[in-house]
Amino acid sequence: MNEDLLALLKSEMELFDSSIETLKNSYNDCFEFGIKANYEYEELIYIDALTSRFARTSDILIQKILRLIDEIELISEGSLIDRIN
């Protein structure tokens, strides 16, 4: 196995862990005001932050971590579904 790839994977996993913590904090902020028909402007800012952080976290997992794992395991790059499987 390539030691450089393993070091990069470790680094990406640390970034992922940090991203998950930030996502959890955003979720908890939004959970406090719950689901309703109309939101205040400030609540919409919190919701926007939550969705952005979710997108970033899922991007780190799918585009970086799973791709690196495929590369480490010498699996040829396939579609997004192949990578997730």
| Main sheet attributes: strand count, strand direction, barrel closure | none
Share of helix among residues? over 70%
Q: By helix and strand content, what is the structural category? A: mainly alpha
Low-confidence stretches: none
SSE arrangement, N to C: HHH
Total number of β-strand segments? 0
For the termini, the CA-CA separation is 21 Å
Q: Average pLDDT across residues?
A: 91
Gyration radius, in Å: 17 Å
The dominant shape is elongated
Query: Strand portion, in percent?
Result: under 5%
How would you characterize the overall build of this protein?
The chain has helices at 3-33, 41-72, 80-84. It has 85 residues and is an all-alpha fold. The model has no long low-confidence stretch (mean pLDDT 91).
Write the layout of secondary structure elements.
Elements: H1 3-33, H2 41-72, H3 80-84
Helix pairs in contact: 1-2
Relevant terms:
mainly alpha; 3 helices; 80% helix; 85 residues
Question: In short, what is this structure?
Answer:
The chain is an all-alpha fold and 85 residues long. The protein has helices at 3-33, 41-72, 80-84. 2% of the residues are buried.
